[in-house]
Write a structure and sequence with these properties.
Blueprint lengths: L1 E7 L3 H12 L6 E5 L30 H6 L2 E5 L3 E5 L4 E4 L4 E9 L3 E3 L12 E2 L4 H13 L2 E5 L3 H12 L3 E5 L12 H13 L3 E3 L4 E5 L6 E4 L4 E3 L2 E4 L3 E3 L2 H5 L4 E2 L1 E3 L11 E3 L4 E4 L7 E2 L4 H15 L11 E6 L2 E7 L6 E7 L4 E8 L2 E8 L2 H13 L5 H5 L5 H6 L2
Parallel strand pairs: 1-2, 1-6, 2-3, 6-19, 8-15, 9-10, 9-15, 10-11, 18-20
Antiparallel strand pairs: 4-5, 5-6, 7-16, 12-13, 13-14, 17-18, 20-21, 22-23, 23-26, 24-25, 25-26
Helix pairs in contact: 1-7
């Protein structure tokens, strides 16, 4: 079987690549190869609205099944790509099937990073990446009395928030001295720690997990020092392992992700890579080579690759943004705060509506906005422009951020 375009990965990036190709009037054949049995769906709700039962699966589909049929996008689901033959322009599936391509878009994302410790693979130890993961987590949580969440990033905190709303006893373990340590400044970390504790979550920082206890299934989490926390379910949210082994084995440049250029091309001919697994030089990280695990990045990279394939090559240059829903708090982030040398508080956390503005050498590089949509919308321009701004101006909530943009 042969296609003009083969897209490996049926997540946000893969779906958007197919959508954009058709919007650009690409008339060749397109196939999306997905490991899961489902057509493309949104992943962020898995630890939020879908897990909480607020949205049925049909409402998190990226497009209904009819959409793909009407646009003649073949769905090869329940299919895993095991290897790539770049010279022969083909991928081989784990069942031995050969799929030829004219161009290949690798949008495979990654697998949940699990704990390489004794008991880490026991039943009852659960990652959060797929619909099946979320369904298993929901089913197990219904009868669980105490749940341990390992990881104080977005996934772990969102899962803890949902579970606490279910009335479950939740212990959240973070190896670093604060939650969200890799993605946010200390004031935001302390705010969310306090929020979770106020909702009954037992947040424990600076802890090392040594093993998962149990024989047939997980019954507890053993910490360094010997303490054991009883657990009927263990949820692990410590990031992903990018799914790039077939690409690297085929000779593509990379390591923690596959390296792509500004048009999302890998070092292999006619092979693009996008989304969580693509390592790229990012203008909003001072040109550093990074991977971005976000819907925004997956969609924007998909558009970049599709345009390059259709002869309208435009370099990837998109301001990163993220969001997280926990309890009644909507966190919206724009930019990358990594490497900031100053942070300005705008508003009062006690009001549950405030923003943190991150600066590097006096220039705005990112904002974290909690229940502060106006700051988020208006602050984006400050990040894009790298606006020079004073702490006094940024902290003055009587002055809209758009005034600072206009004065540049």
């Amino acid at each position: 079987m042969n296609f003009d375009i083969v897209i490996v990965g049926a997540g946000h990036g893969g779906a958007q690549a197919a959508i954009m190709l058709r919007q650009l009037k690409f008339e060749g054949s397109i196939a999306i190869v997905g490991e899961e049995p489902e057509i493309p769906y949104e992943r962020p709700p898995l630890s939020k609205e879908y897990f909480a039962g607020e949205k049925p699966f049909e409402r998190i589909l990226i497009r209904p099944a009819k959409f793909w049929e009407e646009r003649d996008v073949a769905m090869l689901l329940g299919t895993q790509v095991a290897s790539i033959d770049p010279d022969g322009h083909a991928v081989m599936t784990s069942s031995g099937e050969r799929i030829g391509y004219g161009k290949l878009i690798w949008a495979a994302g990654g697998a949940p990073r699990m704990l390489p410790i004794p008991g880490g693979d026991l039943p009852g130890v659960q990652g959060v990446r797929t619909r099946a993961d979320a369904d298993a987590m929901k089913a197990a949580s219904e009868t669980a009395a105490q749940i341990v969440v390992i990881g104080g990033g977005y996934i772990g905190l969102e899962a803890a928030a949902v579970l606490s709303k279910f009335g479950k006893k939740v212990v959240l373990l973070e190896a670093l001295p604060r939650v969200l340590a890799r993605v946010a400044g200390e004031p935001l970390s302390r705010f969310y720690e306090a929020e979770h504790r106020a909702h009954g979550v037992d947040v424990r920082l600076d802890v090392k997990v040594e093993a998962i206890e149990g024989t047939d299934r997980a019954t507890g989490v053993r910490l360094a020092g010997g303490d054991v926390i009883a657990a009927d379910l263990v949820i692990v949210g410590i990031g992903i392992v990018p799914a790039v082994e077939p690409l690297i084995a085929a000779g593509a440049e990379g390591g923690n992700g596959v390296r792509v250029d500004e048009y999302c091309r890998t070092s292999l001919p006619d092979i693009f890579a996008i989304g969580d697994c693509a390592s790229h030089a990012n203008d909003f990280a001072e040109g550093a080579t990074i991977r971005l695990e976000s819907v925004q990045n997956a969609n924007d990279m998909a558009n970049t690759a599709a345009k390059a394939i259709c002869g309208d090559a435009q370099p990837y240059h998109a301001v990163p943004w993220f969001w997280s829903n926990q309890y009644d708090l909507k966190l919206q982030t724009v930019g990358l705060s990594t490497g900031h040398d100053d942070v300005v508080m705008r508003g009062d956390p006690a009001t549950r509506s405030f923003s943190l503005v991150y600066l590097r050498q006096g220039r705005v590089i990112a904002l974290d906005c909690v229940n502060a949509v106006k700051d988020y919308v208006q602050g984006k321009a400050l990040v894009v422009q790298g606006t020079q701004a004073s702490a006094a101006d940024l902290s003055d909530i009587s002055r809209p951020l758009k005034e600072l943009v206009a004065s540049v």
